[in-house]
Each structure stands twice: as C-alpha cells, then as structure tokens.
# Entry
Amino acid sequence: MTSAIPAIEVRGVHMTFEDRRILAGVDLVVRPGERMVILGSSGGGKSTLLRVMLGAYRPNAGEVLVFGRNITTMEEEKLNELRRRWGVVFQGGALYNSMTVGENVALPLRENTMLDDSIIDIMVRMKLDLVGLNDVEDLKPAQLSGGMAKRVSLARAIALDPEILFFDEPTTGLDPVTGGAIMRLMNDLASKTGATSVIVTQDMRCAFDCADRIALLHGGRVHAVGRPEEIRASTDPLVRQFINGEPDGPIPFRLSLDNCAGELRAPLRTKSGRRPRPTASAPQAPGRDGN
# Structure
C-alpha cells in the first residue's frame, strides 16, 4: 500500500434519477491492495456507487479515477481496455446457464487473449483450484449449490489476474458456514495476489472479517469511514444503530420512494425521461437464461 496513486478515487460524485438524488457528493479513496467494504442502509446509494465505480453509470457530477485515470470522461474503447484490469463477482454468481463451469471461467480468457485452448484449459483448472474446486469443469451451473456457484463466479473474476476485485453482496443467500468459507477465500486471494478489493455488503460479519477499512453510506454520502475497530468503537448514533441492527435511531424504519431509490433493481428514469443504462460493454450480470 505504498503507491501514491489510489487504486480508486471517487471525487464529489452525484447521481440523480427523476430529480431524486441518490448520490449526493460521495468522496472515497481506495488504496492499492486494501480491502474496502462499503456498507449502507436501503437507499443509501451503495449499489449505485458500485455501478459508477464499474463505469456502468456515468455520474451527473463528479469523477471516478481508477489507477489515476478518469473513467467518467473516458472513451468506451479505452474504458474497455481498463476493465480488463478488474474482475467482478456478482451477487447471484451470474453464470451463463448454457455454458459449463469450465466455459464460464474460460470466457474472459477467450474474449481477451490469444491463448491456445490447451493453455486456457490449464488456466481454468488453476483458477478453480484456487477457489477450492476440482473436477467440476463439465458441470452446468444448475447442478451447483449456491456456494459452489459463488466460487465459480470468483474463479471467473480472477481469470485475467485482475488488480481490483469488486464483490457485490458476496455472502447473500449463503448459510453461515458457506459464507465463512467464501470470506476466507476472499481474504486468502487478497493476500496471495495483492489485489485491491471493493466489497459491497449488508453482512456485518463479512464487513468486519474482510475489511481493512469500512465506509458507511447514508443519504447518498459517506457518513463514516475507518478501520473495523474504529467503526466498532464509534459513538455516532447512526453508526451504532447500523452495526447493531437497532430498529430505532437516525435511520428511519419506514421507507418511501425518496429514500430507497438508490436500491431499486430497475432504476428510476433520469431527467431526460430514460432509465440510465450501462454502456454496451459495461460489466452486467447475465440473466437466469444466460443472456
């Protein structure tokens, strides 16, 4: 973590849908090699922030720098080249159901390299071995458990040896033991590869077990950021309410469209009347039918 250039730097990012501010001036620095966990209540803007970091959304104001390069103004061709330097583990695994496990993991290698099939097959086995899976290359995603699917998704994300790994709710839907295994894998990979990790989660165990630092989003801004022990020791009422899961406090129990828009699966329309779309080659989770 000695580089002077942050792995990711978010500067004054604003995002508005239908006159509702989802991100309202987010500032966040992710240092090279660190594991940054982003927490947030419903409507806090963490999902939108992740999409902005991935270059899937371009903010209304502000900028995002990745490896010192401004992706908010970058041409699509150059952005696609930069995307090869990061990997994404989607919430549901996002595996292509029509492909085998091996074909899913091989996909980034086939699309971005000129390697022979024999070399790709070896690399696929190596990546699967790194996440604790052996002899599963010929299985289809429908044959996998939730934990196995998550591991395959992680193997695909590290296929190109990325410098940054993005995790979207990596333990959601998993039992505590499987979730613990995934967290161990995440930490082991970070240690072995030195990759920077950005982890969006609501899982407090995941947050405190995986983070070097934690950022808590609320109201479209970074409300608090610090090391896990600093967050645990915080006397801020909102931080205390969130990490302890208390129903009463600054975070309201009742939600309206105004304070949950940042978490909607189908984003609200922009001022132009159109829903914001990821760019054509932006990383997206394929549907259940593999499309």
Notes: The first strand starts at residue 8 and ends at 17. The chain is about 35% helix and 20% strand. The first helix runs from residue 46 to 53.
